[in-house]
Amino acid sequence: MDQEKKFFGFSKNVFFTGLVSFFMDVSSEMIYPLVPLFLANVLGVNKSMIGLIEGIAEATASLLKVFSGWFSDRIGRRKNLMAIGYGISTMSRPIIALAGVWQQVLASRFVDRLGKGIRTAPRDAIIAESAETTHLARAFSFHRSMDTMGAVVGPAITLFLLGAFSNDYRKVFWLSMVPGVIAVFLIIVFIQEKRKPLEVHTERPKLTLRHFDWKVKFFIVIATLFALGNSSDAFLILRAEQIGVPTAMIPAVYLLFNLVYSLSAIPAGMAADRFGKKRLILLGFILFAGLYYGFAVAGTPRAIWILFSTYGLFMGLTEGIQKAFLATIIPPEFKATAFGVYATAVGLVTLPASLIGGLLWDRVSPSATFYFGAATATLSAILFGILIVKDRRMATR
User: Fold this and answer.
1) Element (H, E) at 180
2) Neighbours of 160 (CB within 10 A)
């Protein structure tokens, strides 16, 4: 059967979902680094408006994820929502390519994030349902690895195109549609809907947390608390510049982060499947606390390079593995709903997290931003340790 075929050790759905995310991230990352430059240099938009545009875009995605996940569980379908989400994001490219005012850029970012909000939870549910239970972390880590590799390839293509087109942003925006169209094509042709027997749903899923036990709710609280201290990566870049990394080298520093992230994700997932997801998640929280403390006290460009590499390792250890752990503690018929609640809770605090980071930077000191992140990560590690201990005690009763 097609479902049993393996592609490089992964099920068909897991492999091609990773490939879809790779091409879509190539498309997104061809545009994302250029958006603030396009707004500031071509349209003359001030920095506060740029921040508002990104804030609205990200909030849109976060709010939609929970509703998309619930709707996917309710209708028992994943593939169509996934294809619609990726298709909507792809169709946002012509809007920005033709933009003459900042409102059109806002519309493009809104449409792009609308697509992301629709596709994320159903896509994660497809991965969880298609992977073997013993290889969940490896499956999610493979997906994150492919997604992040797209974040490496996309900017590299953009650098080449900007040179070829004499910094013509609009041509890059148009060409970014190509990998997006490939992503949608892969979904339609290769992703296979995993149909469930009708008797699985004794009732249609409702948008409520009552389906989930204390572990799911507690873990989402922990992840949300952690995200509150995990402010925008823009602060890491600002810190690198402040410490003395030349502006021309900052893209290389960020590229190093994405490379380490991509290369470490799959080995981290394999380690999590073998030694336990909870151990890797706990290690990730502790690593992040040390990492942000390092950014707070860093004094040389060499330290910044090391810290960005470590940040990539942290992302490889945690991003996919947290979703894999969540997949093991949620009821099968509510997978997309749970992934949506998780993504929405974590996503909604990204705006206050960055606001807090900025206020601490301006009102206290740049180091205070990172001390705060180290503190919330430490508290998250303590709470996750409590979850592990309590779960073990209840299991032995």
Assistant:
1) helix 177-190
2) 11
Place of tokens 């910044």: 304
CA geometry: angle at 109 spanning 50 and 40, to 5°? 30
Q: What is the CA radius of gyration of the chain?
A: 21
pLDDT, tens digit, 9 for 90 and up, residues 14-29: 999 999 999 999 998 8
Identify the helix (H) or strand (E) that includes residue 7: strand 6-7
Whether 12-192 and 210-397 share one fold: the answer is yes
Asked: is 210-397 a CATH 3.40.1190.20 domain? The reply is: no
Task: Give the pTM.
Answer: 0.70
- Pairing state of beta strands 6-7 and 10-11? antiparallel
pLDDT at 55: 64
Neighbours of 252 (CB within 10 A): 13
Q: Where are the domains of the chain?
A: 12-192, 210-397
Helices and strands in the chain: count of H runs, count of E runs: 17, 2
SS3 211: coil
Compute the C-alpha angle 349/218/63, nearest 5°: 35
How far apart are the C-alpha atoms of 222 and 346, rounded to whole Å?
Answer: 10
> Phi and psi dihedrals of 14, rounded to 5?
-65, -45
11: pLDDT strictly greater than 70 = yes
Sequence-ordered list of residues with C-beta below 8 angstroms from that of 336, at least 6 positions apart, any chain: 68, 69, 70, 72, 73, 78, 121, 122, 124, 125
Question: Helix or strand or coil: residue 197?
Answer: coil
Partnered with residue 7 across adjacent β-strands are: 10
370, 293 in Cβ contact below 8 A?
Answer: yes
Location of structure tokens 């997978």:
335
Q: What count of other Cβ atoms lies within 10 Å of the Cβ of residue 391?
A: 15
Fold entry, domain 12-192 = Growth Hormone; Chain: A; (1.20.1250)
Residue 91 structure tokens: 């169709």
Is residue 220 classed exposed, middle or buried when 0-12, 13-18 and 19+ CB atoms within 10 A define those classes?
Answer: buried
